[in-house]
Amino acid sequence: MRAKFKMTTALTKTTHSAATRAGSETDAVLETAFEEHWSWVCETLYYLVGDWDEAQDLALEVFYRLHTRPPRDLTRLGGWLHRVATNVGRNAIRARRRRQRCEEAAGALKLQRAASIDPAVEAERQEAREQVRCVWSRMKPRQAQLLILRHTGHSYAEIAAILDVAPGSVGTMLARAEKEFERRYQALEERP
Amino acid sequence: MKHLSEGKLRAFYDRALSARGLSAAERGQVQQHLETCARCAARATVVQERGRRVHTLLAGLEPQAGAGAVAPQIARRQLDTYLWERKEQSMARNPFSRRYRPAWAAAALVLLVMLTLTVPPVRTWAGDLLRLFRVQKIEFTPVDPEALPDEETLEAVAPEIQRMFDKDLTITTDGERETVDEATARARAGFPIRLPATEQEEVRYEWTPPVHVAMQVDLPRLRTLFAELGYRDVELPDTLDDRTVEADFQGMLTAAYGACEDERSPGGECMAFVQMPSPAISVPDDLDIDQLGRVYLELLGVTGEEAARLSDRIDWATTLVVPFPNHFDLTYETVRVDGAEATLVHPASEGGWYREYLLTWVKGGIVYAVTGNGDYAGALELADSLE
Questions:
Q1: Among 1.10.1740, 3.40.50, 3.10.100, 1.20.120, what is the CATH number of A20-99?
Q2: Alpha carbon B166 to chain centroid distance?
Q3: Minimum-distance CB partner of A182 among B53, B62, B70
């Protein structure tokens, strides 16, 4: 199933001069950013953490960083927000995982599934989701970002603009990212 | 036609998304090649199947229907609350926040002053003979910020400190901080630059030129300041007046790795690696350094007995002792990296607002530090991969 949300390409074309912006202009940038980016930032983070409340808390952290440490180049605000959101999401998953390592979390879910009266379909799905998040959070940042961008329906041109790479190299990067993701996923699956 | 790479095959199967990734002509050529090349056809199947499997796994993370984020207008108002909460928490928990900055400024001042303090009165000044110190080791000493002068007092004396710095402190720099490439950094440094053996993405180098700092002691002003800070028992000898303490920093290279928006305040996946020759501090030759060290610790709130015990252990001529606030959400530990003993400062608990870490060590007369935000495993790896 194709993801239902997508960063609007117009967002990546907002033009402001970092050198001349000040006070009210910064506020205006923030207002516009909320209107245009809030929803997809939340949805991207939901992908990563699987909980709307947590996703919105993390999205506020993303916009807090925009408010306190905005990027020098606001012409690529969408790409900057996506990168920060991905980093914030990865850190949230890692913090969660440090409290309970991925392998242990997946193992606990296996036990939960075995002990449940329910056919445990939901528990099985939850286990799979936790494994995917675990694997994803341990990948190189750019590869992790690439997988989410691709899966949420961005074109190669959009991905290239956000990651600041040539459109012709997206296929190669994506193939490597998928290979790496699958290698890590299989390694996690094969753990006792 | 050459055999097809996995990247080209990936773009080929993403045809709906790759209007600019693979042209119509190229797609035709790929199709034609796949019909005649069994090797590439097999590889194409692998790429296509793998892509499907990964897509299926990621699809499990998609948001469920019927739920969603709050409206942007509501979120915008929530940010105002969030900003206020962050400010409050930051003020309360960040030891480097504005609230505590006067304490750190005072600590730095105390360090400078202590270098000129406790001269045995029976000794005479040895003219311009200077004693040279070089930092060979950095130690962190837990101190209770509550034992330092309170915020109100520090705010009150801040203008006096500023006036003292304006009048008595001379800072001479040899140029401006600038972004450079690796070759330029090596040429400017004048010391052997060490970098990680593993290739890093998105590296930026910044060179900070040498700085010379000289402080001339204005004794009456210093006595007034100490009295206002509450250090009424400290006796500053008359012979201190008009003496000069000097510090030489030979320049510093900062390498910022990752997506750093500002390498001076790294966040997210950014790490900053700093290296600089150990600063040289010149002070009058007739100082009682051990006594000076004990007083320094006492001024930082360490009790007399503990200060004496610590002072006996510390070689003050080669060790920079850094006060470490002991009730914040921070902790530190000794680790071994790069063949040397290092100090790692990191958040005491996970999930807190304070996420910065610092790894620092001294080796071969060079001070190294790695700072970043979040997981400090990368800093340890970087330190161990230096060549």
A1: 1.10.1740
A2: 26
A3: B53
Which residues fall within 8 angstroms of residue B97, CB to CB, at 6 or more apart?
B90, B91
Q: What is the 3-state secondary structure (H, E, C) of B323-383?
A: EEECCCCEEEEEEEECCEEEEEEEECCCCCCCCEEEEEEEECCEEEEEEEECCCHHHHHHH
Length of chain B: 387
Could you give the CA distance from residue A153 to residue A9 in angstroms, rounded to a whole number? 12
Rg (alpha carbons) of chain B, rounded to whole number: 29
Mark whether B19 and B153 lie in a shared domain: no
Exposure on the CB side of residue B237, measured as CA atoms within 13 A: 19
Q: Locate the DSSP E strands across chain B.
A: 130-134, 137-143, 169-173, 178-180, 203-208, 211-216, 244-249, 252-257, 271-277, 280-284, 319-325, 330-337, 340-347, 356-363, 366-373
> Is B71 a domain residue?
no
The letter for the amino acid at B10 is R
pTM: 0.47
What residues form DSSP beta bridges with B333? Answer: B344
Rounded CA separation A143/A106 (Å): 23
CB of A83 less than 8 A from some CB of B: yes
Calpha distance B279→A144 (Å, rounded): 41
The answer to whether position B76 is within a domain reads no
Q: Tens of pLDDT along chain A (192 residues)?
A: 333 344 443 333 333 333 333 455 667 788 888 888 898 899 889 888 888 888 998 999 889 888 877 777 777 888 888 888 888 888 777 767 655 555 555 555 555 555 545 656 777 777 788 888 888 888 887 888 889 888 888 888 888 888 878 888 888 899 999 999 999 898 887 776
Enter the tokens of residue B64.
């469920």
Residues 47-76 of A with CB under 8 A from B: 47-48, 50, 52, 55-56, 59-61, 63-65, 67, 69, 71-72
Q: In Å, how far is A29's CA from the nearest CA of chain B?
A: 12
- What whole-number distance in Å separates Cα of residue B330 and Cα of residue B140? 12
How far does A58 lie from chain B, in Å, by closest CA?
Answer: 11
The nearest alpha carbon in chain A to B56 belongs to A1
Q: Estimate to the nearest angstrom the gap between the alpha carbon of B216 and the chain centroid.
A: 29
